[in-house]
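Order emerges. As here.
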Amino acid sequence: MLRSGAVDAPCKPKAGPWILSAAILGTSMAFIDGTVVNVALPALQSSFRATVIDVQWVVEAYGLFLGALILMGGSAGDLFGRRRMFMSGVALFAVASAACGLARNIDQLIAARALQGIGAALLTPGSLAIISASFPEQERGRAIGTWSGFSAITTALGPVLGGWLIQHASWRWIFFINLPLAAAVILISWWRVPESRGPVAKQIDLPGALVVTVGLGGLVYGLIESPQLGWGHIRVIGSLGLGVACLIGFPLIEARAGSPMVPLKLFRARTFTGANLLTLFLYAALGIFFFVFPMNLIQVQGYSATAAGAAALPLILLIFFLSRWSGGLVARYGPRLPLIVGPIIAALGFALFAVPSVGGAYWSTFLPAFVVLGFGMAVSVAPLTTVVMGAVDPDHAGAASGINNAVARVAGLLAIAVFGIVMVNAFGVRLDHELAILEVSQHARDEVQSNRVRLAAIEVPYDVDPKFAPGVKVAISSAFLFAFRIVACSSALLALASAATATLLIDRKSPP
């Protein structure tokens, strides 16, 4: 049993299952909270009378700090000790989860979600680094495979369990459930996980982390708040200007840093650049789609929170069961073909989600779309990982994986900010058209439109003539469905853009 020191020797055989348990439980908390909150968004809108901008921040506050700081979290583990940073991240995540569950208003919840993101940025890279350092080379692949498999299963079951808790208890329990898990992870880590550090202790790139966080934060703030404040508002203009300036300056800072969190020389490899650009487009499509889709299911289609959480299970299971097969496609056909075909199939899946109207059974409306999307993602994910890891020399494999992970998270962050604007504007235009057809009073139309940032959570004004009330409710649902279809088609276009990127930038040859 090792409680301190910088030990890089493989763990004792008896400690192996405990190390895997701690890593799986720790990362599962972060993975689950990255997805289950989407199922809770309608409940949060109802509980806090929140706008779509408010719930965007609930998602974005977490994604912002996780995406911006995950690379710094890996460096901190190498320098100060992986177990120490992993346990620190788990502890911070637990405290933040308790704060989320106890939040009395939407602002408190957003602040607590930001803390959760910082905790996830510390624990996520640490878990895989601990496995790599603790297991001998001949057992490492099996250990990582076990970690991946169980993490996928918990990620799949998380939204189902979260939906059940939301439906039968409260949305607060999706955060409180993290507390016993975190306590178990900290106990196991302190008792059984050996400490380890990177082979060469490096300096943390604090300037780079600060600039990229401010840059992404400024950009996201300006985009999210623009529908409510207007593009000419000083806060929108100032935050967008600051964000763009920081993001332009980030490569300059990294070029001069002694230990950059993003080694720019990796992007000299065309395939590595192409793989990350492909990741940006494909995960942007997933990010905005899964932000909006639970609202469609719960607020428009009338699904329960449990059913909404279970709706995406076919996609996750297809990726899980076909990942080994799709990984072999690279050896057989090279990386380029799967990364063209997979996103094209995914684009078809996204487009199929634009077909159903209100009503209809899940099996005939959304299941076929999920099967097609899941198959497309299954063809894409394993080859994409293989290409990222094979595009650089082995000494930089960890940095390459970390950068690709960060790109995937930032893609969802930016997509929700950008397409949130599209969603609100499309909803407002369609809603005004629908209300005009109903011939409701101008006062009622103005009142409904003033709440358009609540999307499908808008309540029918009390002073609407009772004979028009059902029609107004139908108009709200119809306007949301119109906006949702635009988002689904936009996701399809982003997936096609990732296929085009593969065509232009990914080499035909298999990576070493």
Q: What stands out?
A: The radius of gyration is 23 Å. Residues 1-9 have pLDDT under 50 and may be disordered. Residues 86 and 123 are 4 Å apart (CA to CA). The domain at 274-512 is CATH 1.20.1250.20 (Growth Hormone; Chain: A;).
